[in-house]
Amino acid sequence: MPTGFFDIESRSKVPLETAGAWRYASDASTEILCVAYAIDDCDPKIWVCGDAPTEELLACDPIVAHNCAFEWAMATCILTPRHGWPMIPLAKQRCSMTMALACALPAALDKLAKALALPHQKDIEGYRLMRRMSRPRKPHKNEDPNGTYWVDSPEQRKRLQLLLHG
Q1: Residue 137 domain flag
Q2: What digits encode the pLDDT tens for the residues 90-117?
Q3: Where are the beta strands (DSSP E) in the chain?
Q4: Is residue 71 included in any domain, yes or no?
């Protein structure tokens, strides 16, 4: 059985760092920008809202995510109810962060990749773009100060997807 790997990129008015995964995922303002996934050693692919659920990933066992608790919360609160993804059975899920911690390795993905001297390191440019896109920006001078505004454009989404695609 092939191994699947996935990573959900999202945005919300709720600050993930202080609210936690479940509060963040359950908030009505939280939305998924894309899901990057790969099967075994194949090139990554991108799922975006409006696409059919990726049967290719869902057929894998195990399905691995770094900080699987976040992906589980997002799948439970958003992917399944809003986008029709079937639930990923808990028995199929594996958390690479938990595996790293069990081996006394760093939890943070960038530090883990460095510690393991992996050939692919975390993309700092992609990380910075995702951070800008995942939080509301301050209103511009001519905008309603009470409105919610995002760093977002078709070009930025395409750039994010290309960075995630590897």
Answers
A1: no
A2: 999 999 999 999 999 999 999 999 999 9
A3: 4-11, 31-39, 45-47, 63-65, 93-95, 136-137, 149-150
A4: yes
